[in-house]
Design brief:
Elements (H helix, E strand, L loop, with lengths): L25 H5 L19 H13 L11 H16 L12 H8 L6 H8 L3 H11 L13 H26 L5 H27 L4 H10 L2 H13 L9 H21 L4 H9 L11 H20 L19 H15 L8
Helix pairs in contact: 2-13, 3-10, 3-11, 5-7, 6-7, 7-9, 8-9, 8-10, 8-13, 8-14, 9-12, 9-13, 10-11, 11-12, 12-13
Length: about 350
């Protein structure tokens, strides 16, 4: 899928007042945020339609201007037809292949009693995985009293949860950042920024719903993989300087992206609960029948979008997310998740009830 993993994002209408994006420094991202639950709920808070939030996010990813029209024109309808034809003909065998050892490794990691020696033997079959595991365990964060001298030592130091996440990052980051020109490179970087935030909070929400935390993390990482595919297709069909796009066109692209994300998960033989949650994303209007992981992914995607846009000052400060927060979760959980995202990734602003 060399040519399909970079260019898409679903959007809808975005007309909120925005400030030009401001860079968030690493220091800001690491700065501790106060653990306060005190929010002035008496002050009026702005409710921005969910479609506009999503549209704002996807225009940010593709560096597009605000929409000037809502409905697609004739040229966009013709482009949509070509995109759909390409997606129907899309052969999942063109997707980037996951390392052959990964499915077996993930199955082994589901066993909490898996031995470090067994895991290190599996990882040792893929030199790139070995390099990534050794690189991470040699970082300041994992530095131990004794130097890491063997792969088995590195595996034990990481622990199973750490190993799952290192391997997922190692495999998925290149796919989401697949490079094919200036537009797709920047879009890939922003896709990965969202994926990291979405995976982080999806694991939290998944645990709250009784889901396997790693399956939830994986669902958050993979949920916009089809977006990258459609972005790449768009890049093949139209020059970047002609990409203005109506809200309706981008919303239609979103549906196509959700379909391709699910197909990718099937091709990669990801856990069935992950495939189910991605299948549910193709029908966002049927939120009442979502699985526990589907519910977690819905909440995580929204929180990750808002966090990322907040970091770049793309949303109003007084935005109220409560109308879109899944009923399965309490407002206080929304608050805690937002504070956690701020600590982990940067000084976004809270949008609490």
């Amino acid at each position: 899928m060399g040519s399909l993993w970079e260019h898409l994002f679903h959007r809808r209408r975005a007309t909120a007042n925005r400030v030009r994006p401001g860079a968030v420094t690493a220091a800001a991202g690491l700065r501790h945020q106060p653990d306060t639950d005190t929010i002035d709920t008496d002050a009026p808070r702005q409710i921005m339609p969910l479609a506009e939030i999503e549209d704002c996010f996807h225009r940010f990813v593709l560096s597009l201007p605000d929409a000037t029209t809502e409905e697609p024109g004739n040229a966009e309808l013709a482009l949509l037809k070509r995109l759909r034809l390409l997606s129907v003909r899309f052969d999942t065998r063109n997707l980037p292949r996951l390392p052959s050892v990964l499915p077996q490794l993930l199955r082994t990691l589901r066993n909490d009693n898996a031995a470090g020696k067994q895991l290190s033997m599996l990882i040792g079959r893929d030199p790139l995985m070995v390099g990534e595991v050794m690189r991470v365990t040699s970082s300041v964060y994992y530095r131990s009293a004794q130097p890491v001298r063997s792969l088995q030592h590195a595996v034990i130091l990481l622990g199973q949860n750490g190993l799952r996440r290192v391997l997922t990052h190692h495999v998925m980051k290149p796919i989401l950042q697949a490079n094919a020109g200036t537009l797709s490179h920047l879009a890939g970087e922003r896709l990965w920024d969202h994926a990291e935030r979405c995976a982080h909070v999806c694991a939290v929400l998944g645990r709250n719903s009784g889901c396997d935390s790693f399956e939830a993390y994986l669902a958050g990482i993979i949920c916009h993989s089809g977006t990258g595919a459609v972005i790449r297709m768009l890049g093949q069909l139209i020059p970047p300087d002609e990409m203005t796009f109506s809200s309706g066109f981008l919303a239609a692209c979103a549906q196509l992206a959700a379909q391709l994300s699910m197909q990718a998960a099937q091709y990669w033989e990801l856990p069935q609960h992950v495939i189910e949650a991605l299948t549910e994303r193709q029908h966002p209007d049927k939120t009442a029948s979502l699985s526990p992981l589907g519910t977690a992914l819905t909440g995580a995607d929204l929180l990750a979008i808002v966090q990322l846009l907040d970091e770049h000052r793309r949303l109003p400060e007084d935005l109220d997310l409560s109308p879109y927060w899944p009923d399965a979760y309490t407002p206080s959980l929304l608050h805690r998740c937002q504070l956690d995202l701020r600590r982990q990734f940067g000084a976004g602003r809270e949008h609490l009830t």
